[in-house]
Amino acid sequence: MKAPLPTNKETVLTHENQDIMLFKKRIKNLSNTLLALVFSNVLYQPVLARDFMDERVEFSGFARIVAGYLDEEAASFEGYDDNISLSEQSLLGLQADIHLTDTLTVATQLLAHSSEERKSGIEWLYLNYEPDQYWRIKAGKLRTPFLQYSDVLDVGFAYSWISPPQQLYSSYLFSNFDGLSVTHRNTFADLNIDIEAYWGTYDDSVFVGGDEVNIEVDEILGLIFQVQHDNLQVRAAYAESNEFFADFLGLEDLAVVLERAGFQQSADSLRFDGSANSYQVGVRYDDLDYFASAEWFRIEADLLVVPSVDGYYLTAGINLLPFQLHLTYASAAPEYAVSQNEIPRGIAPQLDQLALGYDQVIDSLPSDSLDSYTLGARWNMRANLAFKVEFTRLVGDRDARSFFDVADNAQFDRRANLYQVAVEWVF
To answer: Within a domain: residue 197?
Structure first.
């Protein structure tokens, strides 16, 4: 159940907020309306519909079946525990590209996921306009391009791992948004250069530590610069999320109590009402014989309950066609900007309890500090079918959550091994 917004946001609805709400509604309805017009004109005329489907519609898809096992009884990691599970990352995706004209396309992707922490349904739905070879404009429900593999994260066939490093590709990064994207592509000397800018909003939920959390972001701004020369690719990205609101159960209730008691600073520190910025730099070199890549990602927020996080990975591998071997090291270290407890102690029992409750909340904030070492192998059985195996050694901080869901804290030292096998298919 969504917690109420702060009182001033309920009572003061500015013209700017009205414009944002109107834009969000228009973006969500835009693609649906266009699709409805297309199909209403052709599907009730069989011959026209058949010609339209043959000439204007392209279908593609992907699927993956992933089995995993964690050799730890006292905790689970990304849904995996000491029982073999096929439901955490297995999925089926179908994509349709409807070419309305030579320059205008409707693209949609439907995703069926077996995980309880992932919603099935429409993953993409947008209009794509490419007036020439240099420009591309997209509007609708888009993939959020925070990271190097964000666009293909569900298509396991597109990368070497079974599970991309959790330190960067964590589920708390919302995977899509409603908005606009403009990309300019050009060449300079031997360089292929892409510059993309995007803007939009987000109003949905993500899973954090097994809990579903509602998130509202009234403004997402991003800029991506990517350059490629022969087999070398470099990508840098910046994104900011403004008017950020998240609903964590219990925190808003405590914030209201603190506010009524006159501790406004402490109350504000518990609210997900502010902004967050992210920075990304990635480099990849891919050759017929070997490959190497690295990526760094940083999140900064002016919210106490959202830590600043630095995460990165280094990976390298060799291609022994049709086989591939790879090794990856990844690490992440969060840091909270904890403010001093302003609630006085020793004056009244009620204030002592309030101060204790505030300290307990601060102490319970999740800290996902984790190092991981992954060894994997891939066999390209066919041009569109791959078999993978992967072993990951997980080493977290003893006093941190480290992306684990801990059932028995006393018996778990934040060390565990994750074993996975997968079949990846594109069609």
So the answer is: yes
- Look up tokens 């954090």; give the residue: 208
Domain span including residue 133: 60-426
The burial class, CB within 10 Å (0-12 / 13-18 / 19+), for 140 is buried
**What are 334's two structure tokens?**
């969060």
Within the chain, how many helices (H) and strands (E) appear?
6, 18
Give the count of beta carbons closer than 10 Å to the beta carbon of residue 76: 20
- The DSSP letter of residue 6 is P
One pLDDT digit (tens) per residue for the chain, 427 residues: 444 444 444 444 455 555 555 555 655 565 555 555 555 555 556 666 677 677 789 999 999 999 999 999 999 998 899 999 998 999 999 999 999 999 999 999 999 988 877 778 888 899 999 999 999 999 999 999 999 999 999 999 999 999 999 999 976 677 889 999 999 999 988 899 999 999 999 988 777 666 677 788 889 999 999 999 999 999 999 999 887 777 665 677 888 888 888 888 888 777 777 788 999 999 999 998 999 999 999 998 877 667 788 999 999 999 999 999 999 999 998 887 766 778 888 888 888 888 888 888 777 777 789 999 999 999 999 999 999 999 999 999 888 888 898 888 888 999 999 999 999 999 9
CATH code assigned at 218: 2.40.160.10
Tally of CB atoms within 10 A around 364: 10
289 within a domain of the structure (yes/no): yes
How crowded is residue 42: how many other Cβ atoms within 10 Å of its Cβ? 18
Does residue 8 belong to any structural domain of this protein?
no
- What is the pTM for the complete model shown? 0.82
Query: How many structural domains are present in the chain?
Result: 1
DSSP string, 177-238: EEEEEEEEEEEETTEEEEEEEEEEEEEEEEEETTEEEEEEEEEEEEEEEEEEETTEEEEEEE
In a domain, 246, yes or no: yes
DSSP-assigned beta bridge partners for residue 77 = 80, 404
What type of residue sits at position 386? Answer: A
- Using a 10 angstrom Cβ sphere, with 0-12 exposed, 13-18 middle and 19 or more buried, the burial of residue 299 is buried
Please list the residues that pair with 234 across neighbouring strands: 227, 283
